[in-house]
Amino acid sequence: KMFIKLPWEKEDLVRFCEKVVQKNHNYDYEKIKIILSRGISWYGANIEELENCQPNLVIYCVENKLPWEVDIKKWLKLITTHDIRPYPAIKSTSYIASILWNIYAKQKGFDDVLFVNANGDILEGSGFNFFIIKNDTFVTPKENILDGITAQKTIKIIEKLWYKIERRKIN
Q: Under a CB-based contact definition with an 8 Å cutoff, are residues 109 and 78 in contact?
């Protein structure tokens, strides 16, 4: 999707991650963050130069709060916005819209922001996936969202617990 040629094999990446965890075991529960960029380009989007860039790889550990350590609220007060992720299929480090809308929401007395498209279909939150439960069915948006690891794992857990899952438009 991003047209980045990796100079490492999968086994190398696993070894890199294991080494980072061994050297940085600071928390009881950690998660690994991996950031990959195309590399340094002196002329921006010059295609010839981009094809020869050496990718930059950053791997680090952060504390992973467990669900019982998080302050869970029964009801969240959300504000909506039409400002949506420009390339939803690509996980990027460009969190500017999420950060600015989250700050705005808190300044206005809301807990967080919910992104919706021009038709009013719910997409996702500033840092969370959106699920609703209707009868015994979990419903989550299907299109124009980041189909990330957390959403995929949540869906697998829902299916293992014998609940139905629907991926469709929600408005």
A: no
Residue 89 has pLDDT above 80, yes or no: no
What one-character-per-residue DSSP string does 133-157 give?
A: EETTEEEE--SSS---HHHHHHHHH
Q: Which of 10, 12, 58, 62 is nearest to 37 (CA)?
A: 58
Contact 7, 55 (CB under 8 A): yes
pLDDT of amino acid 46: 65
Helices H / strands E in the chain, number of each: 4, 8
Tell me, rounded to whole angstroms, the distance of Cα 38 from its chain centroid.
Answer: 19
The residue written with tokens 């504390």 in the block is 63
Which candidate, 117, 165, 166, 120, places its Cα nearest to that of 145?
117
Residue 68, strand partner residues? none
Cα 112 from Cα 101, distance rounded (Å): 8
pLDDT tens digits along 1-46 = 566 778 888 899 999 988 888 887 776 667 788 888 877 766 666 6
> How far is it, in rounded angstroms, from Cα 154 to Cα 141?
13
Token pair 């002196």 is at which residue?
42
**What whole-number distance in Å separates Cα of residue 107 and Cα of residue 118?**
24
User: Would you say 158 and 165 are in contact if contact means Cβ atoms under 8 Å apart?
Assistant: yes
